[in-house]
Amino acid sequence: MEAKNMPPDPHAHQPLVTAGPAPEQAAATLILLHGRGASAQSVLALHKELDIARLSAIAPQAAGSTWYPQSFLASIDSNQPYLDSALRRIESIVADLMTRGLPSHRIALLGFSQGACLAAEFAARHPRRYGGVMCLTGGLIGPPGTPRNYPGLLDGTPVFLGASDPDPHVPFARVTETETVLRGMGGAVELRRYPGMPHTVNQDELAACRALLMQLV
Asked: CA 131, CA 39: separation in Å to the nearest integer?
């Protein structure tokens, strides 16, 4: 994908898929963010695996199944306009839910891999008290040495970080940096390291996410 062949906001009008009750009838709403090359429909399967009856789920689709073209460790500029578009897409979903009467502490984010990076970066750039932020093998976006002077506070938001180590795409050092930054912003962060785990989601991570979400419902 080259920027010259893409609109300035490539993810804006991509589909949303949903599961569970409507947000207005649910106890909480979970925004699910898929990884590179995957789909909204595939990540929505986590809603069924979590098996929480009163939980609504919304999964946006990335244009071309990729939220941004380069590694999350590449320069921010090299991932534009896709990265800003992806963050705006999440912001629009959160804003719509809040307009519909859901307080932010009933809205949670869960992403895997590229989606986990987006969840972490979105929460840091748009901090408030969320119902939870769950990043499964991902971390804050940008090359080493990126300033992390995010304004605002997470105000006690529960944050779960699970990560394989070593991982072919996500250095564990970036996950620990993410832990430090989000905790410094007032997040209640739990980090679990899984030595030798493939680039996937395991049952322990799902159990931790389920426990976090059960506190909302």
From this structure: 24
Q: How many residues does the chain have?
A: 217
Rounded to 10°, the helix 203-214/40-50 angle is 70
Taking a C-beta distance cutoff of 8 angstroms, is the pair 30, 54 a contact?
Answer: no
3-class secondary structure, 59: strand
Rg (CA), the chain: 16
Q: Taking the C-alpha atoms of 75, 185, 40 and 5 in order, what is their torsion angle to the nearest 10 degrees?
A: -30
Which domains are delineated in the chain? 3-214 (3.40.50.1820)
Tell whether pTM > 0.85.
yes
CB–CB of 127/109 below 8 Å? no
Residue 142 phi/psi, 5-degree rounding, is 130, 160
CA–CA gap between residue 210 and residue 193 (Å, rounded): 18
Residues 11 and 31: their CA atoms lie apart, in Å, by: 15
Q: How many CA atoms lie within 13 A of 130 on its CB side?
A: 36
For 19-45, write each residue's pLDDT tens digit: 999 999 999 999 999 999 999 999 999
